[in-house]
Design goal:
The complex is a heterodimer of chains A (569) and B (106).
Chain A lengths: L6 H26 L2 H12 E6 L6 E2 L5 E13 L7 H12 L3 H8 L6 E7 L1 H10 L4 E10 L7 H4 L11 H5 L1 H5 L3 E7 L5 E2 L5 E3 L6 E4 L3 H17 L4 E7 L6 E7 L12 H4 L2 H4 L9 H10 L8 E3 L4 E4 L2 E4 L6 E3 H6 L3 H11 L1 H10 L28 H6 L8 H12 L3 E2 L5 E5 L5 E4 L6 E2 L3 H17 L13 E10 L5 E14 L6 E8 L7 H4 L1 H14 L7 H9 L1
Parallel strand pairs in A: 2-9
Antiparallel strand pairs in A: 1-6, 2-3, 3-4, 3-5, 6-7, 6-8, 9-17, 10-11, 10-22, 12-15, 13-14, 16-19, 17-18, 20-21, 21-22
Chain B lengths: L4 H61 L1 H10 L13 E3 L9 E3 L2
Antiparallel strand pairs in B: 1-2
Classes of the chains: A alpha+beta (569), B mainly alpha (106).
Chain lengths: 569, 106
């Protein structure tokens, strides 16, 4: 073997054999020892995972009109190392994006391989940036939540953050249903990091979010918001809210607050503007709470509507404390005590009832506990146990002091009178259905709880009709529709614990028509100025909303004579 | 016995040709797949773009149709509208001799 080969060739041959042997050893080492990690590094270089965004569910009103939808907008990013003339690029981009040139220049000089220049910009802006044709500037589509009605029902809907997570309102409460699940596509990329379309080897489809169907009627919401806004501005109130509700089912047809905000640009508003006052704020209701004392007195048959009470000509001393009526009265029938909102008459009647029975009815009317509406942040309000009451408490509570409630609790309480004596659970979400229309969850109205008898509810409606007809809420009268309701004007408590003489909470809670109620409306204004009576500030809002809603429901006005004849009959 | 180099070539060459042909076909197939994928992607991009554009247009329509926006527009143009009274509403009779005429809501 190898006979005739020169020693030099043999040496080369040996060297080659040794070199190949070493390479072989190295190959075995690489394959056996570091094969897995090297294979991972290689696959990371050519494999690509593309995120597939799910569509966030749509929020509809009760007539399936869209209240919140999702659109795809372009986000603009830069790969700084690819941008050659940074100064010129930052100058051009600053003009289009409306951001300072220095800010963009700083981003373009960043060491990172990727920087955002603008998230979810408008189609016009994206088009203008594309027209600049700058190398290293690119676009990516991102889903963006939009609210076509702007500020309308903003406190109900809430809003989402940049990454489409629910932050407030129903967007937060039902985030898990609405957001859906991300999908991924695993593909191969080329040397320029672009996806090679033919080499997709796995795709997990995204699951679109479920849709919410609310009980809100966008037309009613719009009317309620407009009239609340007018009242809020006219009386320079610090805050205001309105609730329109179906007293039989508990369906919330409208819920609005002022001040408000545009959920399309929620960042621009303060947290105070974004608070859902109707369920998050509690306040002393004042005289509108007298419906509780009056109903319980009639239900327990402690008084009759015709029983007379002496109202002390407007000033009454009790346990070292002097109580006042805003207008002095002498002898009044119980019916008129409520109609004219006499504090003295109410407290004298309440003394016949006693603390335990009053407390029992406060609880039965749903005060002191959450109503259970499908909105986040609801508070209980405060109702203390009679064991902790002072000698004055019975009198104070009967006229709406020493107790705090939310606007929604008041709306539910007046619904008890409107629907014939039952407490209904309010609801704002009717159902959740998936993208193909299958109902996933239905929010059925809960079985109502009996609070007072039908006869007492009817009697109370008749008394409250008198409040509007000839009592403290004449400004709530709507010709031909015969609404009923109760006004409230409560002094607010100053930080030092005494009742303020300049800050009030005005309220009006009512129903219409009084003989066969279709709707319940609660209007609350916080610190209205210069007028502050519920009958002056809130009743006109009720009136205007009622007038429009009756036409909207095609309920035509009745002639007064006919109704009175029917009543006498 | 000495081997004939020509017969050796006649056996190897067809194999080389066949393998080359298969390789060229494979490359061609991969190129076609790539082209088709690219076309599908381009069509998909156009489709997505149109869908996105459609969504934005739908949003614009919803925005214009929203009661808040309509009210703002009407107020700006000083057009005052209110809900109609009963006497202002007419309804069409569904059946009978008056089917083609309209009847007062009263």
């Amino acid at each position: 073997m190898y006979k005739g080969t020169t020693p030099r060739i043999r040496k080369v041959l040996y060297a080659l054999i040794i070199a190949f042997a070493l390479l072989g050893v190295r190959l075995v080492f690489v394959q056996m020892g570091a094969g897995k990690s090297l294979s991972d590094i290689a696959s990371n270089q050519y494999r690509l995972a593309v995120s597939l965004f799910p569509k966030r569910g749509v929020i509809y009103d009760r007539n399936l009109k869209e209240l919140a939808i999702t659109i795809n907008l372009n986000s603009i990013f830069a790969e700084p190392f690819r941008v050659k003339d940074k100064e010129s690029a930052s100058y051009k981009l600053a003009n289009v994006l409306g951001v300072s040139r220095d800010e963009i220049y700083k981003k373009l000089c960043h060491e990172k391989g990727f920087v955002w220049l603008g998230r979810k910009v408008s189609p016009d802006t994206a088009r203008a940036v594309r027209a600049l044709d700058i190398k290293g500037i690119d676009f990516v589509k991102e889903p963006h939540r939009v609210y076509p009605n702007g500020i309308m029902a903003s406190h109900v809907m809430g809003f989402t953050d940049t990454d489409n997570n629910g932050i407030e309102g129903l967007e937060l409460k039902f985030d898990t249903y609405l957001k859906g699940a991300m999908g991924y596509r695993y593909a191969i990329r080329d040397a320029k990091q672009r996806e090679v379309p033919a080499y997709e080897y796995k795709e997990i489809q995204p699951t679109d979010g479920d849709n919410l169907i609310l009980t809100i009627d966008s037309m009613i919401q719009s009317i309620a918001e407009r009239e609340l806004e007018n009242g809020f501005k006219k009386y320079h109130a610090k805050g205001a809210c309105i609730i329109v509700m179906d007293p039989f089912t508990g369906d919330l047809l409208a819920l609005a607050n002022r001040p408000s905000y545009d959920p399309n640009n929620a960042k621009a508003s303060s947290a105070d503007f974004r608070r859902n006052r109707a369920i998050c704020d509690f306040f002393e209701p004042g005289s509108s709470f007298k419906i509780v004392a009056a109903s319980s007195l009639l239900e327990e048959k402690v008084v009759q509507p015709s029983d007379k009470f002496f109202c002390e000509n407007g000033e009454y001393k009790w346990c070292g404390h002097t109580y006042h009526d805003h207008t002095p009265h002498g002898w009044l029938a119980f019916r008129d005590v409520i109609k004219l909102s006499s504090n003295i008459g109410t407290m004298k009647a309440a003394q016949k009832l006693g603390p335990d029975r009053l407390y029992k009815y406060i609880k039965k009317f749903g005060f002191g506990v959450k109503t259970g509406v499908e909105l986040p942040g609801e508070v209980n309000g405060i109702t203390t146990h009679p064991g902790t009451w002072s000698k004055l408490s019975l009198c104070s509570i009967s006229m709406g002091q020493e107790v705090t409630v939310t606007a929604l609790q008041l709306a539910c309480a007046i619904s008890v009178l409107a629907n014939g004596g039952n407490l209904v659970k309010p609801r704002i979400v009717e159902r959740i259905q998936d993208a193909s229309g299958h109902v996933l969850q239905k929010f059925e109205s809960k079985k109502p709880q009996r609070v007072i008898s039908e006869e007492v509810a009817k009697e109370m409606r008749s008394i409250l009709r008198g409040v509007v007809d000839s009592g403290t809420a004449k400004l709530a009268e709507v010709d031909g529709y015969f609404p009923g309701g109760k006004t409230g004007t409560a002094q607010k408590v100053e930080p030092n614990g005494v009742y303020s003489h300049s800050k009030f909470t005005a309220s009006f809670i009512g129903f219409v028509p009084y003989d066969n109620p279709r709707l319940v409306i609660a209007v609350i204004m916080d610190e209205p100025r210069p007028m502050y009576y519920g009958g002056v500030v809130c009743a006109p809002v009720f009136k205007k909303v009622t007038a429009e809603l009756m036409s909207y429901y095609k309920i035509w006005p009745k002639e007064k004579g006919k109704l009175e004849a029917k009543k006498n009959h | 016995m000495e081997k004939n180099p020509n017969s050796y070539c006649s056996k190897v060459l067809p194999i080389i040709f066949a393998m080359t042909f298969i390789a060229v076909m494979y490359v061609n197939q991969q190129a076609l797949i790539y082209q088709m994928g690219l076309k599908v992607k381009q069509n998909n991009d156009v489709y997505t773009k149109l869908v996105d554009h459609n969504k934005i247009l739908v949003y614009n329509v919803l925005n214009l149709r929203s009661p808040v926006n309509l009210e703002r527009t009407l107020l700006a143009k000083e057009v005052e509208l209110s809900m109609p009274s009963k006497w202002q509403v007419v309804k069409l009779a569904k059946k009978g001799p008056l089917a083609n005429s309209f009847v007062s809501g009263r």
